[in-house]
Amino acid sequence: PEPKVVFAKEQPARSEVQAVAGASATLSCEVAQAQTEVTWYKDGKKLSSSSKVRVEASGRGRRLVVQQAGKADAGEYSCEAGGQSVSFHLDVTVSPGGGY
């Protein structure tokens, strides 16, 4: 049987995301069906909504917003659904003279 299409065809399997320390970083993926539930992971650990990360869904778009990104937030993230995943590499740059 054909595997179910979980992510939209135009969704790249891997994205590089740049963020500036202290600003929010947004990772977004698009699913094929609006009702698809996705789970976000960072470095293999499941993420849940907290004061630090916000998980948003609108239509077929799924977003993970990391508030006030810091060096500790850089790493490998993935958005998983139905046994398939889309991965992101988040790079956080500390702006010179930003007081860090």
TrEMBL record:
It is found in: Cytoplasm. PROSITE patterns: IG_LIKE. Residues 3-95 form the Ig-like domain. InterPro entries: Ig-like_dom, Ig-like_dom_sf, Ig-like_fold, Ig_I-set, Ig_sub, Ig_sub2, Obscurin/Obscurin-like_Reg. It holds the Pfam family I-set. Keywords: Cytoplasm, Disulfide bond, Phosphoprotein. This is Obscurin-like. It comes from Balaenoptera acutorostrata (Common minke whale).
